[in-house]
Description:
The protein is α/β, with parallel strands linked by helices. Helix content is about 45%, strand content about 15%. It has helices at about 35-45, 55-80, 85-105, 125-130, 150-165, 180-200, 215-220, 225-240, 265-270, 290-305, 320-335, and strands spanning about 15-25, 110-120, 135-140, 170-175, 205-210, 245-250, 275-280, 310-315. The longest helix is centred in the N-terminal third of the chain and has 27 residues, at about 55-80. It is globular and about 70 Å long.
Amino acid sequence: MVSRFRPEPLGQPLPDRTGILLCNLGTPDAPTTAATRRYLAEFLSDQRVVEIPPLVWKPILHGVILRTRPAKSAAKYRSIWMPEGSPLAVWTDKQAKLLRGSLGEAGHQVLVRPAMRYGNPSIARQLDAFKAEGVRRVLVLPLYPQYSATTTASVVDAVNAWCASARDIPEIRFVRSYQRDPGYIQALAQSVRKQWQMDGRAPKLVMSFHGIPERNVRLGDPYQQQSQETARLLAAELGLAESEYLLTFQSRFGKAKWLEPYTEPSLIALAQQGLRHVQVMCPGFPADCLETLEEINQEVREAFVHAGGQQFDYIACLNDQPRWIQALRELALQHLQGWDTSAPPPHPR
């Protein structure tokens, strides 16, 4: 008889440890059509992402989208690929290493592993690795400051799916959102001020967040409200008047109406209205990725200049900025309270 539950590792029990699973969206393993097709097939098959009945959606996905979109997307990935790999994977891995080091400097011996909701390293693979290392307490920290069912809830689904086939489940906590976290807001403000020091202060700061279908918000997704809250708090931290910043939404997919105003049309309109200098940032993305480096810093930049704009300053994501790593540490420690984060005793011989 075959059990649906995986067998547990046998042998000498390991000392109990605490771990943080730092989760991001995902990326292809390589900027090729085949790798991008595998990634998009997993991503676009998630019913949290596309809320269309599978019987209707699967023929469209496999018969149309996965035949045409992967080659185009792979070309975009190639335009931003780093020597070390995909920017999203590179920065997420660095953040995990830096967070572990920062916690260690503060006296907390916590393991930190990066994980991708789609692609590699998968959430299941990293939870398996934690188990093999003796991790009995896991804090799941999604790199999504603003909650959405399309992102944060999907991470919860993946963790729960792993638990559903596990025999011995660790204690698990989830960070739901941190759109108003002071450290996060201060890190964003610091990145803007650094840009001001380099290139002067533009008349308009555009804060571009990833979009979601408007229908999702009508059905109760808090993402729009949380994005607006982040924008207001960041503007207040920077001392900006309402006329000095603009909140927009990017990365629209399909024909349905998504959250507005859309980023690229908004930048084109600003240029047509005579604005010559603009600064653009993506507060909802803690790590640079295809949506920031290619969509914003290439496509939207080109559209703004073509419409008459002259200076387009892209403000990089938080990436490995020290203030952001400090904010991640402070956020993690808030949610680790009550758990033992001291160094485990030596393994008995």
